[in-house]
Amino acid sequence: MTRWLVLLAILLVGMVMASLALGDIALSWRDLWETLVGSQDVSPQNAVIVFDLRLPRVLLAVLVGAALATAGTITLAVMRNPLAEPGVLGINSGAAAAVVAVIVLMRDPPVLLLPAAGFLGASAMAAAVFLLSWRAGTSSLRIILIGIGLGSLASAATTFLSAFGEIGNVQRAMIWLAGSVYDADISKVRFLFLWLIIPLALAWMASRELDLIRFGDDAARSFGQPVDRIRGLMIVLCTLICGAAVAAAGLIGFVGLVAPHVASRLVGPSHARILPVAVLCGAILVVAADLVGRLIIAPIQLPAGIVTGLIGAPFFASLLWKRRHVRG
């Protein structure tokens, strides 16, 4: 595990440095180093490019990737379905519907209202899914089915608002829905970092509970685990993590699916090992997606969510293909 952590950490640092150096105005490695260490010879333009434009964007991508990977790891364990990701719980659809409603229905909404609306929408959807799935207890199948149904309803509401909204507002909403970290600033990075500290720590501390619930309700109860309570707490934790990430950067799909699977293949089934590796994998994926989106058809910038979709869709298809003969 230590070897993979070191290798992934080195890869992440390399991706961060590349993201700071490359763009519309490319910086040499020497100029980048002098800017980062605060050399007296650094130009004011390079300082603005690195510290004001690119560094907040890269840091937000790291945090969002880590959050989505952690939420995806929790979802895979709780749902016991290798095709599950946080979107199954309706979190993404709920956040999207709330943000689109604010953008389309309000004239010049405050900037801080958009993340708040996204988080509240995600929380409301997760609460509705859990309450509607309760029937003398919960089950992963009921949660998945109800989550898909409510998610479809929220998506329909988003489409309805987009169809009748003012064209300028609808375009803003579509950009947000695509998922991007282009509007990052240091205050948003600081807020997301402080928000995620406790939930990510709690997720790592719950590694044993995730290991138990993955084996099924009966097996987990035989070891003394209060399954319904743990499942509810894990959904709350997933909402706190994923809802904040979606509110900060929009819908960046498939990170919560790809990163946990890659991590489990690298270090095995233990969640104490999977979680830190998945965090690094998710951060690398979002940083790389943002970098590719900025460079592939420059000066036009593709949102990171589109790039992760291009990566995640084939990955999802490969999982479906491998399970084509699996029943239940």
Automatic annotation (TrEMBL):
CDD domains for this protein: TM_ABC_iron-siderophores_like (cd06550)
Annotated Gene3D superfamilies: ABC transporter involved in vitamin B12 uptake, BtuC
Membership in a protein family: Belongs to the binding-protein-dependent transport system permease family. FecCD subfamily.
Membrane-spanning segments: 58-79, 86-106, 112-132, 144-164, 189-206, 233-262, 274-293, 300-321
Membrane topology, record value: Multi-pass membrane protein
Gene this protein is translated from: fecD
Keyword line: Cell membrane, Membrane, Transmembrane, Transmembrane helix, Transport
InterPro entries the record matches: ABC_BtuC-like (IPR037294), ABC_transptr_permease_BtuC (IPR000522)
Subcellular location: Cell membrane
Protein name: Iron ABC transporter permease
